[in-house]
Amino acid sequence: xxxxxxxxxxxxxxxxxxxxxxxxxxxxxxxxxxxxxxxxxxxxxxxxxxxxxxxxxxxxxxxxxxxxxxxxxxxxxxxxxxxxxxxxxxxxxxxxxxxxxxxxxxxxxxxxxxxxxxxxxxxxxxxxxxxxxxxxxxxxxxxxxxxxxxxxxxxxxxxxxxxxxxxxxxxxxxxxxxxxxxxxxxxxxxxxxxxxxxxxxxxxxxxxxxxxxxxxxxxxxxxxxxxxxxxxxxxxxxxxxxxxxxxxxxxxxxxxxxxxxxxxxxxxxxxxxxxxxxxxxxxxxxxxxxxxxxxxxxxxxxxxxxxxxxxxxxxxxxxxxxxxxxxxxxxxxxxxxxxxxxxxxxxxxxxxxxxxxxxxxxxxxxxxxxxxxxxxxxxxxxxxxxxxxxxxxxxxxxxxxxxxxxxxxxxxxxxxxxxx
Length: 420
Ligand SMILES: Cc1cc2nc3c(=O)[nH]c(=O)nc-3n(C[C@H](O)[C@H](O)[C@H](O)COP(=O)(O)OP(=O)(O)OC[C@H]3O[C@@H](n4cnc5c(N)ncnc54)[C@H](O)[C@@H]3O)c2cc1C
Hints:
Strand 5 and strand 6 form a beta hairpin. The strands form 4 sheets. Strands 6-5-14-15-16-13-18-17 form an 8-stranded mixed sheet, sandwiched between helices. Strands 8-2-1-12-20-19 form a 6-stranded mixed sheet. It is built from 14 helices and 20 strands. The protein has helices at 15-24, 53-62, 66-72, 110-118, 167-172, 174-177, 196-203, 255-261, 269-279, 308-311, 320-336, 344-373, 380-395, 399-419, and strands spanning 6-11, 30-36, 48-51, 76-77, 81-85, 94-98, 106-109, 126-128, 132-138, 141-146, 151-154, 156-159, 183-195, 213-218, 221-228, 233-241, 250-252, 285-291, 299-300, 303-305. It has a domain at 6-44 and 120-182 and 293-419: 3-Layer(bba) Sandwich (FAD/NAD(P)-binding domain), CATH 3.50.50.60. By secondary structure, it is of the alpha+beta class. Bound molecules: flavin-adenine dinucleotide. Residues 11-17, 35-38, 47, 49-50, 131-132, 160-162, 165-166, 191, 307-309, 315, 318-322, 324 line the site of flavin-adenine dinucleotide.
């Protein structure tokens, strides 16, 4: 590769931005700088992830030592993601086990994961307390302006600034940004982390004989629990349908309300235990799950969006983070194959071309899975037949081919630019 340095600003130090930075850092001709609005990248964010084997494969293409990194982050390999009937005459019947391939699904906390990814990136390239306010394209590339009055000139800007990020409107254009803004997907959830022993006592010892993700479904709601943080914590979640689009994404939850939505689950001790675990936290708030129903492009000139900024999704595939890591993987492959800022626009166009269809399929399919899981029926056979085909495409991808497709597309675009 040529010696010239390509200067990239990554806006947002969440999973997408930090994974991309870890990948680009390894490319000598790329200088990637991360700008994060928060003061602390890892913070004490309570969120957690489950990475299936496919996500771990894409992660490994960005950070080859990822298995060691996941171990250091306290990830717990869960045996599978087990769907079980939560109510009625079939209560307790296993519908099926998903994510049974190796490596086993790894459950871990977002804050621990980010703390480990940071170790892969030069400290001086991470800038915290830097909130992007505006971007403008100019003859030399892109200027980024931050809330603290500082600015920077870059060859390109990559928005990894999350579902309500700022960069998206510069990619889509002000006039249509509202049309393609995130909207309610029709579901809400609450997730809390509780000590392992306490969760085991309330949810039943038999559900902890193996580390496993359990998804209890039926009657318009689902209950999920899995083991993480070196087996010291359990993620506890209730998810349900949203009758109407709320004005506010957040709503306070009461025992009466949770008992009402799980009223059909009265005979299931997991439901009672889960309500107790959920309410035993400082702020029992349910959050509406929002999504990007449509996004006409992920790139505009030297500006591009990745992760939740591009394709925020509801949680039912458990693959929002997986899609974000795939984005980082493909951009790393593209930047490895360019040598000059003049090729960035073609790289971003190729990224949009190969990534958008799959990412949008995840968004749409996740909503459809939610509609199946949170439907009114609970017959195991019916669920199995409806769900199983929806899950397969996530794992049916050859990442080497996916990267090659992006690189070939970029070369095609560059060639056609030369001939014009
Ligand atoms: C509760 C929950 C559980 C989930 N569980 C899973 C799971 O098990 N498996 C899975 O695959 N996916 C899961 N997901 C989805 C996953 O969390 C997201 O898809 C993923 O975290 C997206 O990462 P991101 O970096 O794109 O966005 P974010 O994590 O939102 O990061 C965006 C970053 O940008 C920063 N930022 C925003 N605006 C600016 C600005 N103007 N200037 C500078 N910085 C800015 C923010 O502070 C933030 O740090 C879950 C989501 C939620 C909400």
